[in-house]
């Protein structure tokens, strides 16, 4: 069994990767050129089925765990912890074709390259497709990786419900991806995630790729406002308990809290429901989401505290009840220096001078970083936009990033293989 010397790895086939990105983007394609492939939807099933076929074609075993996380396992030297390349295939509504899919399909391109050149990795390589990274259908985000790494209980994940009341665990069974706990991705030697930046840093610097230093903290809240529905005509303006007028002030408060700090501090209201939502009825109830981001836990905590205080003041002013429920938090994380070094060496081997940046977006790598050395590579997002149909990354940049990912993965997969002693032989 020969182990390649990192840096001599064969080149990837950019044309094949481009065609594969197109192939998966067609699953859940939207008229505006984007993708809607919500977690555990029929489109998600179709993409999963295609990935399973593609993984088997390159000699991988395909395993599915009790949270629907998929693994393509390319067996390497027995008894050594594996190297993971991981991301997600689910999207937001009318999202882009690169968010998540790029990381999974770049990993598939690496497996295809190794397969056709008969290059056997030192350590086992695992390609992981995490369930429900986006949290668009089943809130919150990153529940597949969160459940598999112990950040949240698997039973809590399986009991999450979408807005139509469908239970996540039942939807896994419906699409045929309710696997077994014993098939959860193992704690590996290292984990790599390639992802689009989804922000403007690389585009502004006119650089193709960046090495991610870490991920900001994120917290999601549900704000429920209860006023009094009443007739829009005879009800005097002064005696109304209008939930929507109060909600408008809460939305403005979220924006002010987000802009009070420097980037990556941010505040967003993304989901907003008005009841009963009828022209001639004063809104009796409003429910909205709040997404806060900050580089450190203290700032995140202070933002929530400000929101709670401001909501109370708004509630008193409009004689409505405002309930603020914080239901998910992902604390900031700095990636493993050793994995960052491998990514640096891989950039050097590819003749690329990397940029270093933090991620304002959450990623499954946040959770794998809790259990194994993890690192991320970013690809430039044109115009810095994502979570929209205009999301775009150029194949030239993607090709560079995938080559760097290949070098880094093989270097990590060679760790300790030729040494007499193997510290983490499993
Ligand atoms: O919300 C996020 O940052 C990620 O896209 N799920
Ligand atoms: Mn993503
Ligand atoms: Mn996303």
Q: What does this entry look like structurally?
A:
The protein has helices at residues 14-25, 42-57, 101-116, 143-148, 154-158, 168-174, 201-205, 243-260, 297-318, 337-349, 365-371, 395-414; strands at residues 61-64, 70-74, 83-88, 125-130, 190-196, 209-215, 217-226, 230-231, 266-268, 272-275, 281-282, 285-294, 321-330, 333-334, 355-359, 374-379. The longest helix is centred in the last third of the chain and has 22 residues, at 297-318. It contains twelve helices and 16 strands. With 426 residues, the protein is an alpha+beta fold. The model is unreliable at 1-9 and 420-424 (pLDDT under 50). It binds (2S)-amino(hydroxy)ethanoic acid and manganese (II) ion (2 copies). (2S)-amino(hydroxy)ethanoic acid binds next to loops. (2S)-amino(hydroxy)ethanoic acid (HGY) binds at residues 133-135, 141, 361-362.
How would you summarize the topology of this molecule?
Blueprint: H1 14-25, H2 42-57, E1 61-64, E2 70-74, E3 83-88, H3 101-116, E4 125-130, H4 143-148, H5 154-158, H6 168-174, E5 190-196, H7 201-205, E6 209-215, E7 217-226, E8 230-231, H8 243-260, E9 266-268, E10 272-275, E11 281-282, E12 285-294, H9 297-318, E13 321-330, E14 333-334, H10 337-349, E15 355-359, H11 365-371, E16 374-379, H12 395-414
Parallel strand pairs: 3-4, 3-5, 5-16, 6-15
Antiparallel strand pairs: 1-2, 2-4, 6-14, 6-16, 7-12, 7-13, 8-11, 9-12, 10-12
Bound molecules: (2S)-amino(hydroxy)ethanoic acid (HGY) and manganese (II) ion (2 copies).
């Amino acid at each position: 069994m020969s182990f390649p010397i990192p840096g001599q790895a064969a080149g990837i086939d950019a044309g094949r990767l481009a065609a594969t990105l197109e192939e998966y983007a067609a699953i859940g394609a939207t008229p505006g050129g984007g993708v809607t492939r919500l977690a555990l939807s029929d489109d998600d099933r179709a993409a999963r089925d295609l990935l399973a076929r593609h993984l088997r074609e390159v000699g991988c075993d395909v395993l599915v765990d009790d949270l629907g996380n998929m693994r393509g396992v390319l067996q390497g030297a027995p008894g050594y912890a594996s190297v993971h390349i991981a991301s997600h295939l689910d999207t937001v509504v009318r999202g882009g074709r690169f968010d998540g899919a790029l990381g999974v399909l770049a990993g598939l391109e690496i497996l295809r390259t190794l397969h056709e050149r008969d290059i056997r990795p030192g350590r086992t390589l695992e390609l992981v497709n995490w369930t429900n990274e986006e949290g668009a259908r089943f809130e919150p985000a990153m529940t597949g990786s969160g459940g598999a790494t112990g950040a949240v209980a698997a039973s809590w994940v399986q009991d999450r419900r979408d807005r139509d009341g469908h239970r996540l665990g039942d939807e896994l069974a419906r699409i045929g991806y309710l696997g077994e706990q014993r098939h959860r991705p193992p704690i590996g030697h290292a984990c790599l995630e390639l992802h689009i930046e989804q922000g403007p840093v690389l585009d502004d610097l006119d650089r193709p790729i960046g090495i991610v230093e870490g991920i900001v903290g994120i917290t999601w809240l549900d704000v429920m406002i209860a006023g009094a529905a009443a007739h829009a005509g005879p009800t005097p303006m002064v005696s109304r308990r209008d939930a929507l007028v109060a909600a408008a002030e809460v939305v403005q408060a979220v924006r002010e809290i987000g802009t009070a700090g420097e980037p990556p501090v941010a505040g967003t209201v993304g989901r907003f429901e008005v009841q009963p939502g009828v022209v001639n009825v004063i809104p009796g109830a409003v429910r909205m989401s709040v997404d806060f981001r900050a580089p450190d836990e203290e700032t995140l905590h202070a933002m929530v505290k400000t929101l709670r205080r401001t909501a109370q003041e708004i509630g008193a002013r409009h004689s409505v009840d405002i309930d603020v429920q914080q239901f998910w938090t992902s604390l900031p994380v700095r990636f493993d220096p050793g994995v960052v070094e491998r990514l640096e060496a891989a950039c050097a081997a590819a003749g690329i001078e990397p940029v270093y940046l933090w991620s304002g977006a959450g990623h499954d790598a946040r959770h794998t970083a809790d259990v194994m050395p993890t690192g991320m590579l970013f690809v430039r997002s044109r115009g810095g936009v994502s979570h929209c149909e205009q999301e775009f990354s150029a194949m030239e940049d993607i090709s560079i990033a995938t080559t760097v990912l290949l070098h880094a993965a093989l270097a990590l997969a060679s760790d300790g293989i030729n040494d007499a002693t193997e510290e983490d032989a499993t």
